[in-house]
Inverse folding.
């Protein structure tokens, strides 16, 4: 998978124009751009296409103070000299060294390992639900992925990251317009088989509502139920199967307001 | 090369009625240190820039900060702008998106801190910008084109462009290999390019 990426640089063109490549790949791709006119033409067209995605966003009128402070800064902000050495754009962006490549490869393999671990965890956790067919799981997964994409692309979508007290990070992504939220977790500690992570909506009165179980090493979860304005999302460790109300102290709590 | 209005049919009329001086010309004057031209360029394109940045960052204060950085960068680097490589709005919005993505990826710690000390950053109400018929039609055209992509293409593009997620994050979220994400981002963008009639 990693090697194929190198064989066909054009495969990165979409990610490049969407600014989805990491720094090293971005630099590497730009050096490849210098070598291929065909690739440059594709990138020009796809950049124009990405700009159309940007122009489709509802404009927002900046406050007058923004322009005032900006205009005030012009006098003290020097402009770059006009002359550009022909190779300036590429010479500063060297392809990664072999060490950097190795680090890059390691870094890229990580998500795959996490995903594999997640699959294993789901298989263990859902031992009671073996009857579910692969197709059903796929459909459920697609619905979840759809929900996640909808939350992320909602105009009022927001996200906040927090550290988990027992290790790892949790990012809450939510849209109040949709009443939906999702937790993206990284590096959560593995739990013994008789325990599970459970998510809760906690309203402004401090009342918890169940928001679903999180299998230990899965990377994201669209939460069950509806999220309301002002809810804090908390996660506790509960006996496997979950509890009706939290029985332990939250290991992370993320305020959404 | 794109002008602010996407549809080629509308372009001429639009530039006559609304844009007496083209943004490319304004940018050329900015490169000469013309502050008035800069102000005019700002007035024309700042709502687009801020709208896009807010879409990624959500937070009003941070979005304004990044918008200010983008415009300072426009001022500083207008001398390096090459009209042969694309229109002014392409150059500016591409820069705005890149800076917004940079901020999304670097502001995690800030957001955690804000949450911990209990800052409640309710979104600031902005004056709504009167959307011209052209702007609305253009936005609908893009939405329609997005609907013609496959699910995976659309999800991947939305997460990457509007969410500011990197391809590895998108891969984790959609539970597909990174190589697949990259392929879908490319296929999807090529499909969008064709649906929207973008050609260089």
């Amino acid at each position: 998978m990693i090697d194929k990426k190198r064989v066909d640089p054009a495969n990165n063109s979409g990610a490049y124009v969407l600014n989805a490549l990491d720094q090293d790949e971005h630099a590497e791709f730009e050096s490849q751009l210098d070598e291929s006119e065909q690739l440059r033409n594709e990138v020009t067209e796809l950049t124009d296409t990405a700009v159309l995605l940007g122009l489709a966003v509802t404009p927002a009128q900046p406050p007058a103070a923004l322009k005032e402070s900006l205009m005030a800064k012009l006098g003290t902000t020097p402009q770059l000299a006009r002359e550009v050495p022909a190779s300036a754009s590429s010479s500063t962006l060297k392809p990664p060294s072999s060490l950097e490549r190795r680090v890059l490869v390691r870094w890229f393999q990580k998500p795959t390992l996490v995903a594999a671990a997640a699959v294993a965890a789901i298989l263990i956790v859902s031992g009671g639900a073996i009857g579910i067919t692969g197709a059903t799981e796929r459909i459920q997964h697609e619905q979840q992925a759809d929900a996640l994409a909808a939350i992320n692309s909602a105009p009022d979508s927001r996200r906040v990251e927090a550290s988990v007290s027992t290790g790892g990070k949790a990012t809450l992504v939510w849209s109040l317009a949709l009443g939906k939220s999702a937790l993206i977790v990284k590096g959560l500690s593995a739990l013994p088989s008789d325990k599970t992570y459970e998510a809760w909506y906690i309203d402004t009165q401090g009342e918890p509502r169940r928001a679903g179980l999180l299998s230990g090493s899965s990377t994201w979860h669209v939460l069950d139920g509806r999220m309301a304005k002002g809810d804090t999302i908390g996660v506790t460790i509960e006996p496997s199967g979950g509890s009706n109300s939290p029985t332990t102290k939250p290991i992370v709590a993320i305020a959404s307001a | 090369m794109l002008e602010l209005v996407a549809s080629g049919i509308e372009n001429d009329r639009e530039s006559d009625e609304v844009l007496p001086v083209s943004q490319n010309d304004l940018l050329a004057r900015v490169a000469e240190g013309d502050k008035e031209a800069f102000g005019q360029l700002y007035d024309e394109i700042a709502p687009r820039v801020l709208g896009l940045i807010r879409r990624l960052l959500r937070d009003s204060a941070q979005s304004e900060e990044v918008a200010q950085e983008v415009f300072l960068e426009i001022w500083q680097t207008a001398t390096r702008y090459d009209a042969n490589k694309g229109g002014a709005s392409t150059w500016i919005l591409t820069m705005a998106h890149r800076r917004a993505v940079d901020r999304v990826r670097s502001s995690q710690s800030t957001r955690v801190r804000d949450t911990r000390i209990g800052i409640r950053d309710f979104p600031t109400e902005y004056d709504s910008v009167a959307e011209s018929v052209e702007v609305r039609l253009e936005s609908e055209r893009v939405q329609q084109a997005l609907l013609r992509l496959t699910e995976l293409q659309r999800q991947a593009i939305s997460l990457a462009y509007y969410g500011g997620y990197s391809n590895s994050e998108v891969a984790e979220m959609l539970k597909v290999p990174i190589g697949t994400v990259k392929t879908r981002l490319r296929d999807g963008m090529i499909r969008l390019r064709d649906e929207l009639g973008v050609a260089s």
In short: Residues 66 and 72 of chain A are 10 Å apart (CA to CA). Confidence is low (pLDDT under 50) at residues 1-6, 84-132 of chain A.
